[in-house]
Structure formats: structure tokens, C-alpha cells
Amino acid sequence: MTRFLVLLATLLIVPLAATANAIRVKDLVEFDGVRGNDLVGYGLVVGLNGTGDGLRNAPFTEEIMTNILERLGVNVTGEQFRPKNVAAVIVTASLPPFARVGSQIDVTASAIGDASSLLGGTLIMTPLNAADGQIYAVAQGTILPGGAVAEGQAASVTRGVPTSGRIPAGARVEREIEFELASLSTIRLALREPDFTTASRIETAINNEFRSAVATMRDSGTVEFGIAASRARSPAHALSRIENILIEPQRKARVVIDQSSGTIVMGSDVRLSRVAVSQGNLTLRIEEAPAVVQPNPFARGETVIVPRTNAAMDEEEGIALAELPDTTSLSDVVAGLNALGVSPRDMIDILKSLKTAGALHAEFVVQ
Fold first, then answer.
1. Is residue 89 within 8 Å of residue 45, measured between CB atoms?
2. Running DSSP on this structure, what letter comes out for residue 111?
């Protein structure tokens, strides 16, 4: 009985360990044709509390306002009106795949004139066009700005971006994208990060799932799946089985550095060759302290400024020459770099030098 329990525990643990780092196929690929489409429109925001466009600096705002009023039956030809509660905006949205007529999507409105805030504004009915010039949605609603402004007579403070905001469910779909998934006999899976090993593993996992050679790796970024050969009820049923298959992807060793914040991110496959490193800081300081020289009282002469410069060069005590041995894991790399006792900013310089010396075996990305 004890042996049976040990064997059962072993069988339960092994599959969990094998899939500990597994990721779903849907998180690694894009299905060919199943994609969103970008929409854009030009509209008018009204109801602002004196924070709208200055019409002298934004004549296009006056033009679109005139057009809207004329469509509503209000004749303003030849009239001089310069309100401060309107602003011209560019409206953007993304039409998701398989969006149907009547469904609603989020939109973003951004001021293009000199409006200082869209707080409290309402977007007037704005048609949204796709790249083919056709209208696919119409947007309208109250804007939720991405920031706020508080000001007084002598100071002001701004948080976020008050000249841009979102309208949740602010556009209604009026036209559908013509794409018939049910008519496809094959579909391509495009890897977000092309890799031959990952593509091969996806191919093998799909074929094992359907117990047939229904998937073929075309290149490092494409796996072709035969829907007809899978004998699924429909392409949608086949894709629902594919997207939840678990595989362990293979990625390039990569070091990502954000110089603005001093952030360093290293992948688990980063390796170092045996190398010696020394680091120190050299500071050059120059100070100007000009002196004013005046003549004696009642004496002839002029007041002059005599330049005086103090220059110094200081070299801070750096680390001694330290050896980083051959490493086999990320923890060894981190331990070796931490042994140098340097700050993250100095570590960035060390990593750059290691890459230049050919001792850092990873893709180096600097942002």
C-alpha cells in the first residue's frame, strides 16, 4: 500500500513539474485574420468651462462648429461667434475582431487645438473611419479626462494629461468587417516572437492534441493548421482547442536596460564568460569665483573683475579588479555582479562593457 501511494504521488508530481513553465498557445500566437482594425475620426467637444480652443488660433474648430450647426438647421453664415467652451478633437478607437452591428467599443478623444482641458466636455456625434475610408462606428458621449488642472492667480498645478480622455462604450458599431472564419480550410498561427524551437513545439503539441499531422511549421514565425484535416465541427471549435494547449516556449537570452530609471531586467538564459572587471569614478570639478577689484578712494582708476578659477580632479576609490567566473544560471550572474558592490547605474555601465568585450552572451536592449 505504501509503495502504491509513493508511485501515485510520483505520477502526480511529474506532469506538474513538466508544465510548470508552460504557456497557452493563445498567449504566444496571433491567428491569421482574427485581428482588430483601427478607427479614427474628427469631432467637436462642447460644454467645456472656458477651457476650449481659442478660435483665433484654431480656425478649424470654428469651421467644424459651423458645419454641425448648419446640419442641425441653424444658419450662422456671416455671424461672428467665438465661444470658449468648444474644442476640436481627434477620436480614435480599435474595432475588435467579430464586432457586430450595435455592439459598443471604447474611444479616446485628444485635443488638437490649444484647449487646456476636456474636463466636463461632451463629444458630439462623430463618425469613425477605417483605412478603407468607410464608416464603421459612430462615437458620442461624455469624456472622462486623463488629468486635471488647478490654478490660481499666481500658480497652477497639472496632474496627468487633461487634454486627452476616454469615453467607455462611447462608440456604436454600424458596419461589420467582412471576414468569414467558417469558410477557411487552413489558418496560420503567427508567433509574436519568432523562434524555430517554439514553432516546432507548437506543431508537435497541436498534432498530439488532434492525434494527426494537422499542423506544419512553415518558418520560425508561422505554423499552418489544416482545419479540414482536423475534422472539427467548425473552425471556431478547432481554434478553441488549439488556443488552450500548453507548451514551454524558447526565447532568446536578453538583457533589457532602462537608462532613465536605472532598471535592469535579465532573462533566465543570460550567460557570462570568464572575465575580470574593475570599476571606479573620476570626478572633474571646476569652480569660477571672480573677484571685484576697486581703486582706492579718490584715486584714479576703474573697477575691474578679476577671474579666479579653482580646478580639481578627484578619483573616488573604486572596486578592485574582480573576477566573474563562467556562470550557468541567472542566479550565478546576479551573484557575480552583486559581488562587485556597485550601484544599478554603475552596473549598467559594467554590462555595456561586458557586451562590448564579448563576455555577455545575450541580446542587449537599451531603452
1. yes
2. E
pTM of the predicted structure, to 2 decimals: 0.66
Q: Could you tell me the three cell numbers for 44? A: 467637436
Q: Return d(Cα 336, Cα 103) in angstroms, integer.
A: 56
Contacts of 332 (CB under 8 A, 6+ apart): none
- CA-nearest of 245, 267, 149 to 201 is 245
Per-residue pLDDT of 312-327, as tens digits, reads 655 555 555 556 666 6
Q: Are 37 and 98 in contact (CB under 8 A)?
A: no
Spatial CB neighbours of 104, under 8 Å, sequence gap ≥ 6: 169, 170, 171, 172, 173
Per-domain residue ranges for the chain?
24-32+188-247, 37-173, 254-284+315-366
Tell me the three cell numbers of residue 165: 480622455
DSSP-assigned states of every residue in 69-110:
HHHTT---TT-----SSEEEEEEEEEE-TT--TT-EEEEEEE
Q: What is the side-by-side strand order in the sheet with 186-191?
A: 29-31, 186-191, 222-226, 215-219
Give the model confidence (pLDDT) of 239-290 as tens digits.
888 989 999 988 888 888 887 777 888 877 787 777 777 666 545 555 667 7
Given a contact cutoff of 8 angstroms between Cβ atoms, the answer to whether 24 and 73 are in contact is no
User: Cβ contacts of residue 17 below 8 Å, gap of 6+?
Assistant: none
With the C-alpha atoms ordered 239, 243, 245, 248, is the resulting torsion angle positive or negative?
positive
